[in-house]
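Rotation project, supervised by the postdoc (A.L.). Task for the rotation student: set up a whole-complex structure prediction and record inputs and outputs verbatim in this book. Inputs entered:
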Amino acid sequence: MTLFERFQKKDPVALSKFITYVENQSKDYEKFLSRIYPMTGKAYRIGMTGPPGSGKSTLTDKLAQKLSSQDRTVGIIAVDPTSPFTGGALLGDRIRMQALSSVKDVFIRSMASRGSKGGLAKTTKEVILVLDAFGKDYIIIETVGVGQVDLDVVDNCDTTLVVFTPESGDAIQAMKAGLMEIADIFVVNKADREGASNLIYELDSFLDLKRKKDNSFGKCWEYPVISVQATHNIGIDLLWKKIEEHKKFIQDNGIFEKKRKAQIKSEIKKLIENRIKEITEEKVKESFDIENIVEEVLAGKDDPYSASERFLREAKLI
Amino acid sequence: MTLFERFQKKDPVALSKFITYVENQSKDYEKFLSRIYPMTGKAYRIGMTGPPGSGKSTLTDKLAQKLSSQDRTVGIIAVDPTSPFTGGALLGDRIRMQALSSVKDVFIRSMASRGSKGGLAKTTKEVILVLDAFGKDYIIIETVGVGQVDLDVVDNCDTTLVVFTPESGDAIQAMKAGLMEIADIFVVNKADREGASNLIYELDSFLDLKRKKDNSFGKCWEYPVISVQATHNIGIDLLWKKIEEHKKFIQDNGIFEKKRKAQIKSEIKKLIENRIKEITEEKVKESFDIENIVEEVLAGKDDPYSASERFLREAKLI
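Outputs recorded:
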């Protein structure tokens, strides 16, 4: 049996191998993606973000266990903010992966973000496609909760959760972090701790403005704030109910299709851009003595703006 | 007197206008940058990053006041993680800017990061050049302390500070956040609070590994951990001393020049890439019915990989 046949027969080892293949952008991986593309489009994508230490991993695991107990298959992509300087994943993730590997039909993959500047690793989108083609019902994408506007999450997920804890700072900080804008569901984890009710109140006050303003699709989403205690499995059922409500909401109101179209569009553009970037890099290498130009710029005899214009003209691109 | 003459005569109003001009990427702004480029290269760039709430702003202000009292001129760029959905800056920054505006020779500019995915706003590099050409001795670039590997900071600054507080979580979280790798100087702010000594100990233990490993330039930098209480002006002198030591260290060991060269190189590449991106966007618009292709992909009759390849072939780019 070929590896691809094994993949089609839902062999997790084949899945793992193809993910590595795509992640490493090995030879002809784009042809592979082109081949599996018709098999995609069925998985529902849940984004999980929030500040470091908010308990995203625990929450993801509890959701995965719940889904597994309902005979639904789950793929988890945990984007690991591994430094581009050191490489390698952290021990904690290894331990976690071992624990989850025993849960039925849950597949977890940790990905290093590798200096990619968005919170998502460079090939996350592609790995989502592989998990989707494999037949996973739900894909949970857990990102570096960065406080930064993780637009990638919005772009690639159907329902996005932001996880806060009473310790993660007040609502103003959350606003500053831009997390408030990207989420569909707000989770207050470790809700038994001091400051939880205050945080919920602040989140709710801020969301009231958003709830009123948000009528871009005619129908309004409630933007719920859900209290959970992930480690004690408290609140997971309600959270899951809200995720399903949001799923229904976006499907009923045409938002789901709109999102998918936007994803496809940006994917095509990205692919074209990346290739053109590669082609340009080659051209620069071939016909542009960049080291020399850098010396000239440093010496005050040239500047980056004139130099780049010159290159574009010489390469007949403008 | 023209605006440019006023800029050359160090009129802060002219500075402010040119920053806005560059920030908005208004007509011919690249020509302006090309013109001022020979006037740049003298300013020393200090990066200030750290988790939200760690007191980066206060620390920046204290450093600026110190520099001002020594007759050194300072430009501050405070990158504000304003959401791309709402725009607009937060009230706190406005108040702060008013307070600082009375300090001699300190110019502060708040920039929205506007959906740019790195922690730095899109035109931060260009604004640095404007402040440099204006004649600022020091430029402090304060970024969204995001926990995410803010490589942009490393790329654009000469000395990078990371600010932690005892509340910002343990050292493991900091490691996870990738902040440990990008900084030259580690600051523990609010050092009178509980947990400070523990945090310093953890930072130091981690840095010991880094200190041993780091010999990429033959000479080793000490990676100091400095305790401060920014609001009470405690520790600022020592911090400043360490910044000057680091400045001397990188200048004496050729690292400064190496950094500048890398910055220029990446700037030229970026400029070329951006223009090519624009050109491609136009080409796609002209000759590629992307809406129709998206429909085909959604219907399972096409896929992004084949579609982008087709475009590149048709545009004779490959």
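Student's summary: Residues 41-253 of chain B form a domain with the Rossmann fold fold (CATH 3.40.50.300).
Supervisor addendum: Chain B touches chain A through 78 residues (CB under 8 Å).
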